[in-house]
């Protein structure tokens, strides 16, 4: 259980998430993320030189990756600090926040910035030398498509890991998936109410290049699919005999987010509301059985709750990374919670999945929900590529 790591209230942001091959498809994620973080820090009147270390979360390979973390720190304005790059698939954000917390708890540093950024659009096409092939023909990989469609250990596409968990758990139907997905869409609409009042607490506009001479700004998510009961019912399962249609799984996206991690005293100083305290309590991780990625969020959640010294009944807000709606149905069944009451205000199932920043946005939304509820414990959990998962418990006072 952590005791020294805090987040200032308002010490975080997320850009809108933009469906892949959209407005952000040509932006370098390191440049875009670092420049957005710099503008956000300037708007908050926070000097980037405050930070002693940068934790950069990024999963999709891009040009100049060799220099990604220190390059990002310099672009942010923190020209004198090093950084660490964390690529851990969908659990990248949770692990970045945990890595920063480890440094603060051990006294390695007092002030860290976690920047999570990715662009799934225009994923790299990698060529690998293969001299043993006839004529030395190279082996190629489309980073995004090939990795979504095949886990080299599990041997199946990601959607089939969710279908495997459905078969194992029993009783989950396509109608269940449609019903919960519609609820998630309705919860997202709550975040848009009153002129996006909830989202405006944390969302920061992202600027991109429309062409060589013109820039534009994006203030809202782009690429959300309007969802109805009738529309979901018409969609057939992607896998024969399965329960997930294209309507009940997430879509790839582009975006970034940032979180300040610091001591209790500094968090109080930087907070936009000094009556609110946000403490990081614990981290959990897990490895599910082979080919059962969608189940991994449950043991990760249990570990994080145990380390925090609480159980699920103490938790006021649960947020998940749910690339497939079966993730939530399985979690709710295993932990005996109401599937319709988690993921208030939005989740990756609806607004998309840019990989590294997805969990960060979930944690940020969880914090803001807890503030509206007058404080309490929050649990974030989710699966990640390779049958793994990660979770965080945060307390808002």
Give the structure's gist in a few sentences.
The chain is of the alpha+beta class. The protein has helices at 29-44, 68-76, 92-106, 143-149, 158-169, 174-196, 229-234, 264-270, 297-308, 325-335, 348-351, 356-372, and strands at residues 6-7, 12-14, 18-19, 53-57, 83-86, 112-119, 125-128, 139-142, 206-209, 215-218, 253-261, 278-287, 315-321, 376-384, 388-396.
Please provide a written account of the structure.
- With 397 residues, the chain is α+β, with helices and mostly antiparallel strands.
- The chain has a domain of 158 residues: Peroxisomal Thiolase, Chain A, domain 1 (3-Layer(aba) Sandwich), CATH 3.40.47.10.
- Helices cover 35% and strands 21% of the residues.
- It is built from twelve helices and 15 strands.
- The strands form four sheets. Strands 2, 3, 4, 5, 6 and 11 form a six-stranded mixed β-sheet that branches.
Q: Helix tally? A: 12
CATH class of the domain at 158-196 and 278-396: Alpha Beta
From the alpha carbons, calculate the radius of gyration and give it in angstroms.
20 Å
Distance between the termini: 17 Å
The main β sheet shows up as:
6 strands, mixed
Mean pLDDT: 97
What is the strand content? Answer: 15-25%
Amount of helix:
25-40%
Second rung of CATH, namely the architecture of the domain at 158-196 and 278-396: 3-Layer(aba) Sandwich
Number of DSSP E strands: 15
Shape: globular
Low-confidence stretches: none
The H-level CATH homologous superfamily of the domain at 158-196 and 278-396, spelled out, is Thiolase/Chalcone synthase
CATH names the topology of the domain at 158-196 and 278-396 as Peroxisomal Thiolase, Chain A, domain 1
Please state the structural category: alpha+beta
Instruction: State the oligomer.
Output: single chain
Order of helices and strands: EEEHEHEHEEEHHHEEHEHEHEHHHEE
